[in-house]
Design goal:
161 residues; 5 strands
Length: 161
């Protein structure tokens, strides 16, 4: 391998690069990588639109929780902490019936906006999780919310090494 041109195969033909395109003789690999990075950069410029969509969805969630009289809603930005979602919303209901009603109202608001959320915990209604893709909503009874302490866990700042 030491004396071989890395861009040529043993037959002398140009070797395919990591994207399946053929590098021409004399073309540097760094140029190909820079071009690939430029293409990735174009897709990263689209992220603000995704952020706006998540922010709009967050407004829908918070409005629905306010309409349902959910107590102490807390929004946690988890974009840099997890790939599961962009935001986590934690709120409380006064009773199992209130938790169920708030969750049902939220699901209906999301469905009317074209989102098909997944729901877990409705039969017991101590803790209902509504997964709307970019936003995960937890609705607890107050005792259960205090016991699990999700806000403390996800809002904790990282310790310096």
């Amino acid at each position: 391998m030491c004396g071989r041109d890395p861009q040529k195969t043993e037959s002398g033909a140009a070797a395919p690069n990591h994207e399946g395109k053929t590098l021409k003789r004399g073309k540097k690999l760094t140029t190909a990588l820079q071009q690939a990075g430029a293409r990735r950069g174009a897709s990263q410029r689209k992220q603000p639109a995704a952020d706006r969509a998540a922010a709009g969805l967050l407004e829908t969630v918070l409005a629905s929780l306010a309409d349902s009289k959910a107590e102490n809603p807390v929004t946690i930005d988890i974009r840099g902490k997890s790939s599961l979602a962009d935001y986590m919303v934690v709120a409380s209901g006064r009773s199992q019936r209130h938790v169920a009603a708030a969750a049902e109202h939220l699901v209906q608001a999301l469905k009317s906006g074209g989102i098909r959320p997944r729901v877990e915990g409705l039969p017991h209604c101590d803790w209902v999780l509504v997964d709307a893709g970019d936003i995960v909503v937890h609705i607890f009874r107050p005792e259960v919310r205090e016991f699990y302490g999700l806000e403390k866990m996800w809002s904790a700042t990282e310790r310096p090494n």
